[in-house]
Design a protein that fits this description.
By secondary structure, the chain is mostly beta strands. It is built from one helix and two strands.
């Protein structure tokens, strides 16, 4: 477990001040979906894996 510098300084985490998300990546679908066609009607679901990632930064108040 990473060390907690705020605990070493005798502090506690307070309220969340800000949350930001960057670097989110997921598949983008073009074509039929953008034309208003129901894509679910003709899409076969295949076994496999899909990687989705995001970076989230949360800024807390120190008490």
């Amino acid at each position: 477990m990473p060390s907690c510098p705020y605990k070493a300084a005798g502090k506690q985490l307070g309220e969340v001040i800000a949350v930001s998300e960057t670097g989110a990546s997921a598949p983008i679908y073009y074509g039929a979906r953008s034309e208003g066609v129901d894509m679910a009607a003709g899409v076969a679901i295949e076994p496999g894996q899909l990687d989705i990632s995001a970076a989230v930064t949360v800024v807390f108040e120190l008490k």
